[in-house]
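A further point concerns the way the authors explain their paired sequence and structure data. The central task, working out the C-alpha cells from the amino acid sequence alone, is never made concrete. I therefore recommend that a typical entry be quoted early in the introduction. An entry of this sort, consisting of the sequence and the corresponding C-alpha cells, reads as follows:
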Amino acid sequence: MKAKYQKVEDFFIEKINKGILKAGDKLPPEITISAKYGYSRMTVNKAMKDLEKQGYVTRIAGRGTFVKEKSVLRLLTDNISFSDIIKQQRMTPGSTLISYNLLPSSKVPSATEFETPINKFHHTVRLRTGDDKPIAITEDYLNADLITNIDFNLLTTSLYSYLKKLKLPVIQNFVEIKAVRATKEQQKALNLDVDFLLMTLANADTITASNQRVPLGVFVSYYNPDFYTYRFNEAQQ
C-alpha cells in the first residue's frame, strides 16, 4: 500500500503527464492541498519536495510551486543511450540525421589517444529530441576500419541499439564535460536562448567477436543546458 505522500505525488504526476497541468502552471498552496485531501502539511510538503527532486515542479520561495518544463537528468555514472535516458524522463525520443561524411583521423577529436591507429571514421551529425523538442546535437565518429558499412536507417533511433545489433559493446575510456560556445547553426537547430552549450566527449573501445579490444569511436554531444543536466551521485563513488 502506498504512503500518503506518494498518493499526493501520483495525483499531480498524472495531471502533469496528461497535460491537465502544463509547464508554468501554479499548484495550489500546501495548506489547500492538505485541507482538500485530509493529509498533514508535513505529508504534502514531503510530496512537493519529492516532485521537485523528480523534476516535475520547481518551488520558488514566496511565490509557490510551479510545474516545470520537462528536462533530462543524467548521472555521471550512467552508460546508457540517449534514447533510454529520454524514455526514463517520460518522453518520446527522436533522432534526425543532419549529415554524414567519411573523415581521416586527423579531423577527429581525441583520435590520437587510441592505442591502435585508425585510418578513417564514419562521421554522423544528428538532432536528438524528446517529445519533438530539440535537446541535443550528437556527433558520432565510428571506426570505419571496424564498421565498414553503416546503416543510416538504424541511426534514426538509438546508436547504442545499432551497435548492439552489430554485437559491439561500448567500453568508455574517458568522458569529458565542459561548457562551449554554440555556433549559429547549433543555436538555430536547438532553439537556444543562450549562446553556450553543455558538451560531452567520450572516447570508447569495444570487444569484437574474436574477443579483441579495439577502438570503437569518439562520441561528442552538445546539449541545451536548459533541458539537460548531469549529476554526480556520491553514493556511487
